Amino acid sequence: MTGFNESRWAMPEFSKEYRDNADVYIADRRKMLDIMKSFYSYFIAGKGNSRVLDLGCGDGILTDNLLEADPSIAATLVDPSPDMLSKAKERLAGFSNIRTVNASFQELIEQDLLQENYAFIVSSFAIHHLIMNEKRLLFRGIFERLSEGGYFMHIDTFLPPTDSLEDWYFHMWSQWVEEKRIELDLEGDLFSDLTRRYKDADENKPDTLEDQMSALKDIGFREVDCYYKYGIFAVYGGRK
Q1: Would you call 186 helix, strand, or coil by DSSP?
Q2: What does the pLDDT look like over 112-160, one tens digit per residue?
Q3: Could you give all domains of the chain from N- to C-terminal order, each with its CATH number?
Q4: Whole-structure pTM value
Q5: In what order do the strands lie in the sheet with 118-124?
Q6: Are 126 and 56 in contact (CB under 8 A)?
Q7: What mean pLDDT comes out for the span 44-72?
Q8: 185 partner at 20 to 30 Å CA-CA among 20, 145, 204, 221?
């Protein structure tokens, strides 16, 4: 498992570049956030337990969107980057029931740092940095931290099951980036050859959607399903 401090995400300038351009880099990002809010509103809001855990929270955009659906949320946000947590605190400054924890997935796997249960645990674009065995260990920890009947939702990139599908999915992704770049009138090399840079980055260790959903089922999650998919981007989860 690569330590966080050895990755590019430990560099504030790299995380800032990502924050500034995430809606271009991530195909249909806003749609996936809307799906998350719909899911939370339908299955969790108003049911008496509004504790949320946001794993790899970045600048707090997931929690911010959930608070639009339910301002009563009590949220714990976890991220290994002090810079990202600082931005999350700025974004969520108007809300009182917010707790931040500076910890990596490695630390969550090895230690019981959270010590409370949650109705909803969500993570986006972070777990793909773990190899499959580490993903399973994290998923098991998530299962243990869910309240009975609680839900886990994972928004992330995934490994296509065949090379031909990967070629098509990456073509779709490149088209998305180019269309957004033109729409927003953006210039520069940040948006060129994005798929190759994603594949070449050692820190990216995606596994297939099927393998990860199977891991959830093996751990004991029920009602496991894929809620949305766009190429290599998907939203899936399950219920304890």
Answers
A1: coil
A2: 899 899 999 999 999 999 999 999 999 999 999 999 999 999 999 999 9
A3: 4-239 (3.40.50.150)
A4: 0.93
A5: 98-102, 74-79, 51-55, 118-124, 146-157, 233-239, 222-230
A6: yes
A7: 94
A8: 204
